[in-house]
Amino acid sequence: MIKKILGGLAVLLVLAVAVLGILLFRPALDKQDLAKYAGPQSQFLELPDGAVAHYRDQGNMNGKTLVLVHGSNASLHTWEPWVKELGDTFRIITVDMPGHGLTGAIPSDDYSRASMVGFLDAVMRELGLTGFALGGNSMGGGIAAHYTIAYPEKVSHLILVSSGGFPASPDREVPLAFRMASTPIVKDLMPYMGSRAMVEDGLKNVIVDDTLVTEEMIDRYSDLNRYKGNREAMVQRFGLYGMKDDVLPARLGEIDVPTLILWGEKDYLIPVENAHKFGEAISDSTLVIYENAGHIAMEEVPEKSAADVRAFLEKQ
Predict the structure, then answer these.
(1) CB–CB of 70/96 below 8 Å?
(2) What angle do CA 106, 109, 113 make, to 5 degrees?
(3) pLDDT tens-digit series, residues 26-77
């Protein structure tokens, strides 16, 4: 009898998940569907391994180069407020990382942090860049820190904005999307799911001022995550969530370039306590905390955060 009951519950669970998948089904989009997100500044660079990187090279071509790496499920567009504020002085390179934006899927199908670092270096080598300032937000911050450790001769300054890199606290609630990516059946449906309402809710969870979450922002995040291959890559990345990252915290002391750490005091995705951990681990670091900001300071407080970046780069 118990086996029959459990079997019946399993069938109901599968049916419920199937219905959920149908209700939330959203087809993948091709590059032509997303042409409005390319724009006149966008360029596409084919790398030696066959990956095609979407990047932008903007600002003052004679200025110091600032390379910026976005966070998970974001795109190079997240840095446009800084491009606007800093482009008069600095040359700014922004890149869609593998499984994101208009770069999309890559031939290796490897979306680990190590692969991301290798991808970024391949772009830098193809563009002939060295001696640049490197910044990153969230996932991109962890990539930037790893890159600085791996290629110290190439990075002059490091900027971390609500950076990933420290293992999550064991008593901290795991985000729903990460739990879904580790759940059988559900994770297989995730590449076909993702309502616009879910994207809106996610943005309002990481941004303090809901009025900043515009219809245009919701559309951008939602549409670009539907680019062919991006949701499959997302499932792979999220499936790695919770794995201990003992390497970065142990090696942060190797970073010997001037480092600026920017954090929103109300960042509920990566708590502000991690800002202090980075500051303690990196000897030559400056910490700035924004009272009324969350996880993406460059979009929430662009003028303040860009001014801090300008002061940091110009005084060095």
Answers:
(1) yes
(2) 95
(3) 688 988 999 999 989 999 999 999 999 999 999 999 999 999 999 999 999 9
CB of 132 closer than 8 Å to CB of 152: no
Cα distances (Å, whole numbers) of residue 47 to 106, 122, 247: 10, 7, 28
8 Å CB contact between 86 and 92: yes
> Residue 169 has which token pair?
């606290």
**Are 119 and 86 within 8 A, CB to CB?**
no
118-169 confidence digits (pLDDT tens): 999 999 999 999 999 999 999 999 999 999 999 999 999 999 999 999 887 6
